[in-house]
């Protein structure tokens, strides 16, 4: 096996079992099989109908001899319901070490539920991690089901008729099409599994107390008051009825199984109640009870019961959930009556307090929630599940998330991106303190704070990240009631000059220019407004202006093609209130796609609606800064929706030499199992393998050898110390530049030997690069979020100016284009009007290649190109460092439940 295959095998092996959902929402367990499972495999084959055996084995016969599962070059994965094996997928490597023949068998009752596709997904993942690149198969032409499984998988498939059989070849590298197909399958399965939770036909409250101050009593009353359209039952062994609902002594005594059980019992008894629910056929649990996560015993037991009976679980330690759909009307929680209202906003939150605050704010705004889920300790159902639920829920027009942790950030990114393409997705940041900064040696890692990583995730996924809870209703009012702006240019109109100036300042501070108005617009305003009015931008109508006149002036601004949004600031006076003109304008027909915002400093609410009809409301803010922040988010969303599709990037030519790069990493990790910083020649080999331009260097052992290396180079050189504990050579005084003679090289070498003494491990001799702007390009691998690529100012300015942009891999050309224009120096360097001609395309190519390196070599924990020197033609890394460490198992391109 090659070194690249060896390093893949070392870093990712399938261990244990995982649960995953089928198309009908039920779950199976998947695990790699051993010889101990051989009899079960043989039994599965024997139970196949005659036609299925013929299609699988090209013969209707069968054998009682169990297969040899554990043999070199093969792997088997099985799908189990309970203890029963319901499907197997296997591969066997042949003469080509990069290819394996694959076979599949699914029990007849389980066919058409997606078992075969799920098995192939996980078998393909295992094969990829063991260095395989292709699956092959021989399929009979009449085996339409198997042909459909291959076609629906989403991986590139080639089929050729070979005599009476079809020769099938499947490429295993996951591309965008495969990830999209995977997401579609996951969505269908996830939504089906959540039906008993969010659209139940029957609900039982376990722990429904008669005591008015108890959670169980409050939940039952909430369900009844909400008008739940299904059947309600209660379990209380000490009561005949609670709130008019007859009680049963236990879940086992229920006359019929319920879809959803709401569990409100002490933590220690939750696992036993959950087991009763599983045995009685309950399909979903909402565990309100707290205290489980502080006690490993009950927590473990609850998870095991949920796994055993294939139930979905919300909680524990949560507020509850609701679905305001008139066909459901479920409010299973213990928030105060009247907190929530039915509406069009989906809400998922780990915090019950945040859930209550957002629901109350939306109710006061005049909207409400479509579905709301408080996930609490989030053992199973998470924000990812709700992103999938809302994708096809046309009632939900916006989604709000409060997530204190991410179970699977890469899936979150994929699901959020798909949802954000349809509706706005908002999140309230949490845990963004600088106290979360982790210690790191490289410049790149030192900037990768938790907030930086999460903001990169949110930005790429199209999620609007907010800092205050009050921003949620403010932004939703704008996004739900007004069209998105076509650009960033803002017109401000006010009947109070000072308020107009403050408003204009707030928008300019958020990179929303307030430009001069077109001449035609100024003339129209001059005709409409009193003689003392100022018709620049901002527009000052004077304090004495009638509502109708003010509204006419706003219409003029809305019609200006050079304006993308209009902000109307009004203050009532003893002579009138021009704000009434905004209300009249909102009530009339909309004649423009330009959004209109109102600011009214005297109103008590942070944001309120002007105009009552749906689709004709104008958001009115008390604070001009809040209005500016909301519009900035709306502009960002419009720009995200308009950006080019994030097509995956492929380098020109043959692509990277992955075997060479992985070989360097594999050899280093064999000698240094805990990982560490690659030596200079190893760094250069890895970079060259990915086509990243780097100045080759020579590491020598003393002044004489340094002089010989200089003579061989034939050009001025830089001399750098390679010393223990020294990563940033310039900061440690370990760099000498522009050495153009043997005497200069010898003298500099002697200085470095004297300076570092016994710590010196060598002297690095490197040709001088042509002068040019210096950039930092780096990578930090986050164990949950994946690699983060950073671009910013490099060289001596790296630590002086915190001017950087960040994105998570995989990178697209659109991502890199945004990064280079996002940090302040980049916006100047790469603009068409830049004073210095530099090769922007070369930099973009280098950053994309760094992103590809980070994606394909997950052992790379940190990488710095600092500086990357940019010239009029090309760019080159003058100094580079790479830290590697063993990578954890796992594959984000497979379906699996959290528990």
TrEMBL record:
* Pfam families named among the record's database cross-references: Acetyltransf_1 (PF00583), ATP-grasp_5 (PF13549), CoA_binding_2 (PF13380), Ligase_CoA_2 (PF19045), Succ_CoA_lig (PF13607)
* Keywords assigned: ATP-binding, Nucleotide-binding
Residue ranges annotated for the N-acetyltransferase domain, each copy included: 28-175
**The ATP-grasp domain covers which part of the protein?**
684-737
Organism domain of life: Bacteria
Q: Is ATP-binding set as a keyword in this record?
A: yes
Report if keyword Nucleotide-binding is assigned.
yes
Alphabetized PANTHER family for the sequence = COA BINDING DOMAIN CONTAINING PROTEIN (PTHR42793), PEPTIDYL-LYSINE N-ACETYLTRANSFERASE PATZ (PTHR42793:SF1)
Which protein is depicted?
Answer: GNAT family N-acetyltransferase
Supply the source organism's classification.
Answer: Bacteria, Bacillati, Actinomycetota, Actinomycetes, Pseudonocardiales
């Amino acid at each position: 096996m090659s070194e690249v295959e060896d390093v893949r095998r070392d870093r990712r092996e399938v261990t244990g079992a995982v649960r995953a959902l089928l198309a009908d929402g039920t779950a199976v367990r998947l695990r790699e099989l051993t010889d101990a499972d051989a009899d079960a495999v043989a039994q599965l084959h024997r139970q196949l109908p005659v036609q299925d055996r013929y299609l699988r084995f090209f013969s209707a016969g069968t054998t009682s001899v169990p297969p040899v599962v554990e043999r070199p070059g093969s792997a088997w994965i099985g799908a189990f319901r309970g203890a029963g094996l319901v499907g197997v997928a296997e591969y066997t490597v042949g003469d080509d070490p990069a290819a394996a023949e694959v076979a599949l068998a699914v029990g007849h009752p389980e066919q058409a539920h997606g078992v075969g596709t799920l098995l192939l997904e996980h078998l393909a993942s295992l094969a990829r991690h063991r260095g395989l690149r292709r699956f092959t198969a021989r399929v009979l032409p009449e085996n339409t089901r198997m042909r459909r499984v291959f076609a629906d998988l989403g991986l590139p498939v080639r089929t050729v008729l070979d005599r009476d059989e079809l020769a099938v070849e499947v490429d295993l590298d996951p591309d965008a099409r495969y990830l999209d197909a995977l997401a579609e399958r996951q969505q269908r399965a996830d939504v089906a599994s959540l039906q008993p939770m969010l659209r139940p036909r029957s609900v039982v409250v376990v722990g429904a107390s008669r005591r008015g101050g108890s959670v169980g009593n409050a939940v039952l009353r909430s369900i009844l008051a909400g008008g739940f359209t299904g059947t309600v039952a209660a379990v209380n062994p000490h009561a005949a009825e609670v709130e008019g609902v007859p009680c049963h002594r236990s879940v086992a005594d229920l006359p019929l199984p319920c879809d959803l059980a709401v569990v409100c019992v002490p933590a220690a008894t939750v696992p036993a109640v959950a087991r009763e629910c599983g045995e009685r056929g309950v399909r979903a649990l909402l565990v309100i009870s707290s205290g489980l996560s502080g006690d490993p015993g009950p927590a473990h037991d609850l998870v095991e019961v949920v796994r055993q009976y294939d139930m979905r679980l919300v909680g524990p330690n949560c507020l509850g959930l609701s679905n305001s759909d008139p066909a459901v009307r479920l409010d299973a929680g213990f928030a105060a009556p009247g907190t929530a209202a039915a509406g069009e906003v989906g809400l998922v939150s780990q915090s019950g307090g945040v859930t209550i605050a957002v629901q109350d704010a939306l109710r006061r705004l005049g909207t409400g929630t479509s579905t709301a889920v408080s996930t609490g300790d989030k053992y199973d159902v998470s924000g990812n599940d709700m992103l999938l639920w809302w994708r096809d829920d046309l009632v939900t027009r916006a989604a709000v998330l409060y997530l204190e942790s991410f179970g699977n950030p890469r899936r979150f990114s994929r699901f959020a991106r798909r949802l954000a393409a349809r509706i706005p997705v908002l999140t309230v940041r949490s845990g963004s303190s600088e106290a979360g900064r982790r210690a790191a040696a490289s410049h790149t890692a030192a900037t990768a704070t938790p907030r930086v990583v999460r903001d990169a995730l949110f930005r790429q996924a199209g999620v609007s990240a907010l800092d205050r809870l009050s921003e949620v209703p403010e932004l939703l009012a704008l996004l739900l009631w007004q069209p998105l702006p076509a650009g960033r240019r803002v017109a401000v109109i006010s009947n109070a000059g000072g308020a107009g100036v403050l408003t204009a300042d707030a928008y300019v501070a958020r990179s929303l220019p307030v430009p001069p108005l077109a001449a035609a617009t100024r003339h129209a305003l001059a005709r409409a407004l009193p003689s003392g009015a100022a018709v620049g931008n901002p527009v000052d109508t004077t304090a004495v202006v009638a509502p109708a006149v003010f509204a006419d002036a706003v219409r003029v601004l809305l019609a200006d093609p050079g304006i993308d949004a209009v902000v109307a600031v009004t203050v009532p006076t003893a002579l009138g209130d021009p704000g009434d003109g905004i209300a009249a304008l909102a009530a009339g027909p909309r004649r423009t796609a330009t959004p209109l915002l109102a600011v009214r400093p005297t109103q008590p609410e942070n944001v309120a609606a002007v105009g009552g009809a749906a689709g004709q409301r104008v958001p009115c803010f008390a604070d001009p800064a809040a209005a500016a922040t909301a519009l900035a988010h709306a502009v960002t969303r419009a720009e995200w929706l308009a950006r080019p599709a994030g097509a995956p990037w492929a380098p020109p030519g043959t692509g990277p030499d992955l075997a060479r790069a992985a070989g360097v990493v594999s050899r280093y990790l064999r000698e240094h199992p805990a990982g560490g910083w690659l030596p200079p020649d190893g760094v250069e080999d890895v970079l060259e393998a990915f086509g990243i331009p780097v100045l080759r260097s020579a590491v020598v052992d003393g002044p004489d050898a340094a002089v010989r290396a200089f003579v061989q180079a034939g050009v001025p050189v830089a001399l750098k110390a390679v010393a223990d504990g020294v990563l940033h050579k310039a900061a440690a005084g370990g760099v000498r530049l522009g050495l153009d003679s043997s005497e200069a090289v010898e003298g500099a070498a002697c200085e470095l030997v004297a300076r570092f003494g016994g710590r010196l491990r060598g002297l690095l001799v490197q040709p001088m690069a042509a002068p040019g702007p210096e950039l930092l390009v780096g990578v930090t691998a986050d164990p949950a979020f994946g690699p983060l690529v950073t671009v910013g100012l490099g060289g001596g300015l790296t630590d002086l100016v915190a001017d950087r942009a960040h994105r998570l891999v995989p990178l697209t050309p659109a991502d890199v284009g945004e990064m280079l224009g996002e940090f302040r120096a980049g916006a100047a360097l790469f603009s068409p009007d830049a004073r210095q001609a530099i090769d922007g395309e070369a930099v973009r190519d280098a950053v994309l290649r760094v992103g590809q390196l980070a994606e394909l070599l997950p052992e790379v924990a940190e990488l710095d190109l600092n500086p990357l020197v940019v010239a009029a033609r090309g760019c080159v890394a003058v100094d580079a460092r790479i830290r590697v460490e063993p990578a954890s198992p796992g594959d984000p391109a497979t379906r699996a439940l959290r528990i």
